[in-house]
Amino acid sequence: xxxxxxxxxxxxxxxxxxxxxxxxxxxxxxxxxxxxxxxxxxxxxxxxxxxxxxxxxxxxxxxxxxxxxxxxxxxxxxxxxxxxxxxxxxxxxxxxxxxxxxxxxxxxxxxxxxxxxxxxxxxxxxx
Length: 127
Fold this sequence. Notes:
This protein is about 80% helix and about 0% strand. The chain has helices spanning about 1-25, 30-50, 55-70, 75-85, 85-90, 100-125. Helix 1 (about 1-25) packs antiparallel against helix 2 (about 30-50) and helix 2 packs across helix 6 (about 100-125). It comes from Flavobacterium crocinum. Keywords: Membrane, Transmembrane, Transmembrane helix.
């Protein structure tokens, strides 16, 4: 179990690195960052629930991403101040966009498919 968590944690931090890098390189479209954000959330959930069904992980990840995106519609003074911090900007975002919902959906779907494919391949290889 510990080995799986370490594996997922390494992937998690690598995705964070790629996400930050995607914001620094001007020719990379902005939606790539949102796509990677969703993949990062998927592996964050995976760290805490390493043996749960991949479909459940994908569903939980989608709910978290959608929840954070819809939370951007809430515009109270305290949360606006929080969004102006580095943490708030990266975690909570700035404003609601339907394109972010699409990017999150494709990011989670990609992480789900890749994990299913690699786990099936590794299971087949070990038999």
